[in-house]
Every structure is written in C-alpha cells, then in structure tokens.
Design goal:
About 30% of the residues lie in helices and about 25% in strands. The protein is of the alpha/beta class and about 300 residues long. It folds into 2 domains: about 140 residues, Rossmann fold; about 120 residues, Elongation Factor Tu (Ef-tu), domain 3. α7 runs antiparallel to α8.
Length: about 300
Amino acid sequence: MKSKRPLVISIGVFDGVHRGHQVLIHETVGLAKRLKAIPSSVTFQDHPMHVLKGTIRIPFLLPRVETFRLLKERGIRKVVALRFTKSFSQKSPEQFIDWLRTLGPIKGIVVGMKFRFGKGAKGDVGLLRILGKKFGFQVIAVKPVLLRGAVVSSSRIRGLLMNGKMETARELLGRPYAIEGNVVHGKHVGHKIGFPTANLKHIEQFLPKDGVYACAVKIGKKYYRAGMNLGKRPTFKDDDHHRAAEAHILKYFGKLYGKRMKIFLLKYLRPEKKFSSSTALVRQIGKDLNAVRKTPLAGLKRA
C-alpha cells in the first residue's frame, strides 16, 4: 500500500542485521526524524545472488521474519520485502527508482557506499545522488564498518561461524549468534544415557560448524545454560545420522515438545567425535557440561 506520508528508505539484504547494518539503520532513523518522515527499509524475500547468478542457495544468517523484527526493534517502522525476480532485475537504475517512488513520497535514501542498483549493477551512489536531485530526495552513503582491521560483512560472519569463532562473530553481529527451530521428538538416545535433549527441527537459517557448543536458551523470562551438539551423532550405529541440533538444558525440567526454541551459541567447545562406547561418550559429555557451566551469560538481554 502506498504511503501518504514521506519516507526515508534504507536499501539492503540486511543478512544478519550486523554492526554495519545497524549503522545504516541508525542513519535512516536519524534522517527520517529530521525530515519528519517514516523510517523504512526495502529488503528481499530471497538473496538477489540466487536469482542473478543461479548460485547454490545459501541460507540467511537469520530467518527473514527475525530480520524484519530486528529492523523494527531498531526503529524502522515500515519494511518492504521485495520478491526479487529475473524480470525485476532487468529494470534500469531509473526504473528501479520509479518503482521505489510507488511506495510513497521519498525524502531520503540511505545505502552503503558500494551500493549498486539496476540492470547490470549500472547504478551507483553517484547516479543515485543525481536522481535524488531530480526527484527531491537526499542521499546518505554510509562508510563500511571496520572491526579488527576488516570490514564487517555477512560473508565474513559466515566464515567465522564455519571455523567455530563464535566470540568474534558475536562482536561483528553485536549479539550472540542464535538458531531457532521447533522442538520435536528424537530417538531419546540422550535420555537413555542420562542427558535428555531438546531436538530442533525446521531450522531455516545458516548452520555453523559441526561440533559441541556452550549455549544459552531463553525459556519464559529466564536464561538457562545448555550444551548443544550439532552434527550427525556418529557414536550410535542405529542412528540415521542426519544433521541435527540437540541441546541439553541445565537445571530445566519442563516439557518443550512442540514449542519454538531459540538457542544462543556462545562458545565452540570441540569437534564432533565418534566414541568407542556410550560410557566414553557420557564421560566426555560430563566434561563438556563443566565447560558450559563456566561460560558467562552476560549481555544476553538485548539478544
């Protein structure tokens, strides 16, 4: 629906809503306040690279619904999730701006300095400024955010997660990396060896390196420490060995089946390993949970 009130629009994939994106959002909200406009974001239902290059589908760092929630939590009041198609990709830069103007009167556009738009990525910030003068909107181009000597980006965060660098990924995101899924019944192997687990299914986002993690789970208003195994459970011969996330929650005894659960991955403890017996596995789980108990839960309230 076309807005009658003026808009200030940030444009991007916002994969992960990391610290770089947060600066973009902050600038958008600030400009909208100065111009008495609605702070808005135009993003995508799917990653444009999948459409443009036909690349293997790489899951987002967050489910799209969580991305939209974080954008709104930081002050964006209107989120437009574009269903990007081959046909849409053929729009010229000028036609893309014409499409944006169908959303409502635009007073400002906020993008990254390397922003490209239109067919063949022919449009850049310079052209956007020219079109801004023509149609009466301001343009803010945000510089890349640097952390530890490199640009904060979604691809860099993926690399950190694939290497178990959870603490550095947390710095780039501004919060711990978390995965969400529905708690389902598993084969109850964990219960049989004394460590019942919540098994997650329907995880619609990027999964990090297989292994054992120190985590936290929020249930109600309280955070509980948890140990999570992500992988194929190689120790048990009768398992189907599909990739799964299983969390053992410390000091929690309620039922979680059928509920949606969010697991914050705080620290990578060790790779997944095949043990010679269930006794050896139980011994190692005990060591893992001791490490989980020592992992601080500070800084989770805003996650």
